[in-house]
Amino acid sequence: MRKITIAIDGFSSCGKSTMAKSLARSIGYLYFDSGAMYRAVSLYCLEQGISDGDNIDVEKLKASMHKIRITFECDTETKNSITFLNGENVETEIRSLRVSRIVSKVAALDFVRSEMIAQQREMGKQKGFVMDGRDIGTTVFPDAEMKIFVTASAEVRAQRRFDELKNRGDNPDYNEILENVLQRDHLDQTREISPLRKADDAILLDNSHMTLDEQQDWLYKKFSELTKE
Ligand code: DC
Known about the structure:
With 229 residues, this protein is of the alpha/beta class.
């Protein structure tokens, strides 16, 4: 069966990564989480004093960009993808609220985006992968054979993020998360470079009222239709 490029874009916390990971696993494709790359750059900013948790020293970050290397490895046991920042496993830390708070600002910087896009295209040189993000179907791989744009209501997405943080032992505040979701939606959609938007040829999926299994079935069906010889 011919291998294709699958781009899954959409709003934050709408379950893109879960869907993308699970699809990749079931069809034997690689999975790349482009959001994790912007999160890793944000963590670097916090760790190196480039950000105070609110603002970013843009000139300092620009001068440090060449020192940031982001890679992915597959966990042999869980088969999940793990994000590494300069060789260090940062998979848990990049999901924290302090990273979420600044990531949209970091992702809006042109020199950060151009570096991440170059790294993403390098990773995607060989077909047979699923990449999720905001601009994968519009900017990074505009020729992707399968493009999905996922959305869900802000409240549903905030609840999902809340559950995720609670499950891993944090003590999250729902209203704070909802505010963060709304703020990120706004920044993602209004930024000048590669704003979040549905590609004309992307298929829309609103998963507000769908179970994970239903989403998986839907995605797999789309994949099968597209790859049928
Ligand atoms: O999907 P996520 O919440 O992990 O993404 C983190 C941030 O990175 C989010 O604010 C949007 C941004 N992002 C982006 O600008 N472009 C991408 N391709 C992926 C994520």
